[in-house]
Design a protein that fits this description.
Blueprint lengths: L11 H4 L5 H14 L59 H18 L2 E4 L9 H11 L5 E4 L5 H7 L5 E4 L6 H6 L2 E5 H11 L1
Parallel strand pairs: 1-4, 2-3, 2-4
Helix pairs in contact: 2-3, 4-5
């Protein structure tokens, strides 16, 4: 346990589970799709300004009949099938999501890139202390730090470091755990993280 001499017991079902890459891939893809803003769009002929009346009469001009200058084949017209309100999200079952989180956590535990942090050692916000702790740990960046919202000293100490992301257990995603080369979990947040994966 980083920053303390205490011994912490980890749930074997969470940190020693079988790693299932296909579930991790499915869950990460769903999370990334859910994060897409889907702001691409276009206007149909009914939404484009202008074109209220026929540009010329139906017969007698020698030209093709036309009802609006905003038809899709006209310059300045609307799109035939504009993309609007597209939803990229895909559903992942709760059991699958939890199994993927267990796999991601177990992969860190097996690789030796998991650390449990005592927030009491960072009571006062100190970026310098956070840098020293990361250097002493000697693990690869980027690092994901999971802490309780009440651990303000811990959060403020780590949030200014480059290639370090701080999150809370309620917002922890599988894609974040997979992205991080190293994982730091504060002792108070450990129980909640294990609860989300069970």
């Amino acid at each position: 346990m980083l920053g303390s001499q205490k011994t912490v017991t980890l749930e074997e079902g969470v940190f020693a589970a079988e790693v299932k890459p296909h579930l991790v891939h499915e869950t990460v893809r769903a999370e990334l799709n859910d994060a897409r803003s889907a702001t691409r769009g276009g206007k149909s002929r009914g939404l484009v300004a202008g074109g209220r009346s026929k540009p010329w009469r139906q017969k007698g001009t020698g030209r093709a009949r036309a009802g609006s200058t905003r038809a899709p084949h006209w310059t300045g017209g609307g799109m035939a099938f504009p993309p609007n309100n597209r939803n990229f999200g895909s559903k992942v079952n709760r059991k699958t999501r939890r199994a993927a989180l267990r796999s991601a956590l177990s992969a860190h535990a097996q690789a030796g890139t998991l650390g449990i942090l005592d927030p009491g050692k960072l009571g006062e916000p100190s970026t310098k202390a956070a840098v020293e702790l990361v250097d002493k740990w000697e693990k690869d960046l980027p690092i994901l730090v999971v802490a309780q919202p009440e651990d303000e000293g811990l959060i403020k100490s780590f949030r200014n470091l480059q290639r370090v992301v701080v999150t809370i257990p309620a917002e922890l995603e599988v894609s974040q755990v997979v992205w991080a080369r190293s994982l730091l979990i504060s002792e108070p947040a450990l129980e909640q993280v294990q609860g989300r994966a069970q």
